[in-house]
Amino acid sequence: MDLEDELRLLTMLAGAYLLLFPAALQAQTVWDMPTEYPENAMPGVGLTAFTKHVAESSAGKLEIRPSFDAKAGIKSAGMLTAIAEGRVQAGDAFAGALEAEDPIFALPSLPFLVTSTADAKRLADIARPHLAAALQKKGLRLLYLTPWPPSGIWSKTPLTSPPDLAGLSIRTYDRTSTEVFLSAGAKAVSISFADTMPKLVDGSINAVLSSGDGGAGRKLWEYLPCFSEITYSLPLSIASVNQAAYDGLSADTRAAVAAASRQTESELWLALSRRSVPGAAGRGLSAPRFSTPSRPANHSGLDAGAGLEA
């Protein structure tokens, strides 16, 4: 058999293979999916799990390409626009940072609205259809919600009384938290998580409102050795996808995405109880001085700022 005959035979075999296995004609679909949070913070954990579950559920037909720490150049406040414009197919964003898009996104981070994981889960279930509707108006589809551990205050020294708040130049994470801390006497500015560390390094801020988990991801204790567990809120991050990108999938692959979304969120809620500063050592991280001040000493100034005092 000469070279020409061998090439003819290979061509025939390739054609027969594609007739027998038409799925081979389909190129693998890839979704870029960024977050501004570290890989070991809750959104990063969710992104990693979702990537794995999608690959398994879709039998490799859909690949999620995650990126962390805002390496894609997209922060939470700009995530919905980036997805809608097709710069990325999907992404994770902190809900409070999206309040300019729709007021419903501010709901999960309202101060002292929920104080337990059970209450946070109930609020998430109530808010879910409204969050999905707000995304739908922008051409996006909700994938899953990422719960955060309780927000507290990272600071250089322990906070023991309301007057201590006046000495803070604190990073906040949405308009409401900024107003609450300003009303309590602090200097407060809303800063994306990705931009927080440079502000700590240059001395622009000396405190950070974040969860113990988020702080662990950035090792905030290297600058702010004290964490006050005040349960300001148990906020959410939101994972969403461009609706057109989702609609372009086969029915089987869409079902795989839905299954992966449900599995990811279920795992995140189960993991929430372990995602706190005391549990940081179990994740190979150091831990700061951890304190849980009494409510009167810790909250009265913030309660007034939030309009909660009688």
Q: Which superfamily, in CATH terms, is the homologous superfamily of the largest domain?
A: Bacterial extracellular solute-binding protein, family 7
Mean pLDDT reading: 86
CATH class of the largest domain, named Alpha Beta
Helix content: 25-40%
Taking pLDDT < 50 over at least 5 consecutive residues as the criterion, the unreliable ranges are: 278-287, 293-298
Q: Work out the number of β strands.
A: 11
- Name of the CATH architecture of the largest domain: 3-Layer(aba) Sandwich
Q: Major β-sheet, in short?
A: 6 strands, mixed
The number of helical segments is 10
User: Helix- and strand-based class?
Assistant: alpha/beta
Shape: elongated
How many structural units, i.e. domains?
Answer: 2
Indicate the radius of gyration in whole angstroms: 23 Å
Annotated CATH topology of the largest domain: D-Maltodextrin-Binding Protein, domain 2
**Content of β-strand:** 15-25%
Q: What is the ordering of alpha helices and beta strands?
A: HEHEHEHEEEHEHEHEEHHEH
Tell me the span between the first and last alpha carbons.
94 Å
Q: Could you give the order of strands across the largest sheet?
A: 7-6-8-5-9-11
Topology:
Elements: H1 3-20, E1 29-34, H2 42-57, E2 62-67, H3 76-84, E3 90-94, H4 117-136, E4 140-147, E5 151-155, E6 169-172, H5 175-183, E7 187-190, H6 196-201, E8 207-211, H7 212-218, E9 226-228, E10 236-242, H8 243-247, H9 251-272, E11 289-291, H10 295-305
